[in-house]
Amino acid sequence: MSNATSWPAPDPHTRRRIPETSRPLDRPVVERLLAAEWERFRDWSAGSGRHNVRAGEALPLGVTSSFQHWDPWPITITSARGAHLTDVDGNRLLDLSMGFGAMLVGHLNPVVVDAVKHALDEIGTLFVTPSSQATDMAERFKTRFGLDMLRFTNSGTESLMYAIRSARAFTGRKAIIKIEGGYHGGYDPLQVSVKPGLDEIGLADNPTPATPFDVEAGTVHVVAYNDLGQLERVLSAHGTQIACLVVEPVIENLAIVLPDEGYLAGVRRLCDDHGVVLIFDEVKTGLTAGHGGASQRLGVKPDLVTLAKSIGGGLPLAAFGGKREVMEVVVDGRMAHFGTYNGNALCMAAAEAVDELCTHEALAAAEQVNLGALEAIDTVIDEYELPAHTVGVGLKGCVTWSTSPVRNYRDYKATDFGVAELSWLWGVNRGILTPPGLDEQWLVSLAHTTTDMDQLVGDVRELAKALRG
Fold it and tell me: What are φ and ψ of residue 152, in 5° steps?
């Protein structure tokens, strides 16, 4: 069938390709393949199954973060190097998750390892005083990300929490706006409408916030991504009570959802019109979107930005920062920011190594590897007329099982989750690990090669052959 429909173009600094034609998949074939792949998974990962039973006695679900769990059990890893992992059964896996970007420079990158060893041998681990190392890194990040001032934290959740508190202190307002379906860590207001059921959230053009029972959220307004009309209506009705809008410039917990051309500029304008602090959550984009993050790539400057994952080389490092007038709330005491481990010497050593490794040239080279993989997968999609398309930004890419673009959460919920599960499991069973769930995406780190990505392309081709029987 023809896919010739007109949709708003994505931001020109991103990539999405919808094939001109496609054919529906045979559902019994999908179901048969999925059943066979789960049997195959149980056979080769038995050691992980036994470990999960043991781990479950001490750790809820047998994991250290709930997203790591899947039925019947997750893969247990014992070591990693470069772009590969080794599990408890001795299987070698190509890591295309890379900690959602935290391992941007690769596992055990020797430059990072040497920097951290030097800190352990010669500098120290934690001073809980001002340090030259923290000042040096703050100056580097200020330059790289175009920030007036910043503070270090230890996680994305912390950075988002303090960014929101800074916005409240700056504006004297309490309410916030977030994007329907978006995930921004564990702070209570940001738990509203994170992948909610469609039966919980009302009409698409007037979303109802969905708040888990255990959450004390305060006043949270929810709007669809890529819908300036919804945002304008909420701001017109409630703008004098709203402190901030929190948004990923590119949504990366729903596979990859790109901003329409002009959308983020419109968001910036509306926030300015209503005196609302614009917070870009770049915990997942960050350096994976380019040398200065997604905001610089896409050309829209927020008031505050939150960073984590890619900046720390695998150590727990995050930051929030932005315009001086907003960050002054920390200076004059309107918002107190504390943290024993903030800016510790080990994380600063790792961050400096990452900063030196992630040059314009290194990131551009990795992006070309990613583009090559996306183009090769496009060829497979065309050849087998798969009801799917590719999306990419910077060093990340994905296959979305839909013949129309995913522009918001409701579009994501309309994608083919059955084939998405099969696609993910097919890869896992053939030694390619992407994040668990129905929103898989991959990261081309500085450690990945064209040969590594050829493995992914070959995996997609073999799946296409099996789907077409």
Answer: -90, 145
Terminal Cα-to-Cα distance of the chain (whole angstroms): 19
Residue listed under structure tokens 């250290």: 64
CA angle 68, 69, 72 (to 5 degrees): 145
pLDDT in tens, 208-234: 999 999 999 999 999 999 999 999 999
Give 91's DSSP letter.
Answer: -
By CB neighbour count within 10 A (0-12 exposed, 13-18 middle, 19+ buried), where does 331 fall? exposed
At residue 299, does pLDDT exceed 80?
A: yes
pLDDT for position 454: 98
- Strands of 77-81's sheet in order across: 77-81, 84-87, 92-95, 432-433
**Residue 75: what pLDDT?**
97
Question: Rounded to whole angstroms, how far apart are CA atoms 224 and 463?
Answer: 33
Location of structure tokens 């149980």: 42
The whole-chain average pLDDT of the chain stands at 97
| pLDDT tops 70 at residue 324 | yes
C-alpha distances in angstroms, 378 versus 56, 370, 381, 434? 41, 12, 5, 19
Q: 310: closest CA among 327, 280, 290, 295?
A: 290
Asked if residue 4 has pLDDT above 70, the reply is: no
Q: Which of 83, 143, 133, 130 is nearest to 353 (CA)?
A: 133
Tracing tokens 């309107």 back to the chain, one arrives at: 334
* Helix-helix angle 450-468:360-383, to 10 degrees: 20
Question: Side chain identity at 156, as an amino acid letter?
Answer: G
User: Any residues with CB less than 8 A from the CB of 127 and at least 6 apart, and which?
Assistant: 344, 345
In 3D space, the residue among 372, 379, 419 whose CA is nearest the CA of residue 400 turns out to be 419
Could you read off the pLDDT of 418-435 as tens digits, one per residue? Answer: 999 999 999 999 999 998
Using alpha carbons, select from 263, 306, 264 the residue that is nearest to residue 164: 306
| Residue 29 burial (10 A CB sphere; 0-12, 13-18, 19+) | middle
Residues acting as catalytic residues: 183, 281, 309
Among 254, 250, 239, which residue's Cα sits nearest to residue 393?
A: 250
What is the rounded average pLDDT of the residues 291-304? 98
- Structure tokens that stand for 234 in this block: 């909420």
Sign of the dihedral through C-alpha 359, 362, 366, 371: positive
